[in-house]
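Problem: given the chain below (159 residues), write out its structure.
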Amino acid sequence: MVDVRVLESYEARVLANVAPGVFDQPVDARWCEEFFADARHHLAVALDGDQVVGMASGVHYVHPDKPPELWINEVGVAPTHEGRGIGKRLLAALLARGAARGCEEAWVLTSRTNPAAQRMYQGAGGVETGEQPVMFTFRLGEPAAAGDVAGGAARAAEA
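Solution.
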């Protein structure tokens, strides 16, 4: 049986045994330590014995003009364990953690080209907003191109 729970800050060692396909990259000890050192970071895991076969990560945050919210960063399930409802269970655990921390709403973005994720979020009670968000990324710390504010910010920080 697969057990789903949210890890506590002292349980980073659980991530020493992760099935392929759960995370996008191998777990990095320095990022793992930083993640768990921040009480606003949350990681639900699905354990098949002592192996992590799924995860859902999120961050609860506050803003000067809004009540606390939970941003769901990503949900990943090992290909060997897909189609068993593990993603929904992970999401439920993460949402419960957010509610326990006072979050009034949770949100996640997914791609229109990922119908499996859309079904999971809808099946877990998520409501599509109908908005068509546009995502921009900024490569921080790289040389700036003409008009590149992010590169300029990196240079300013170095000064």
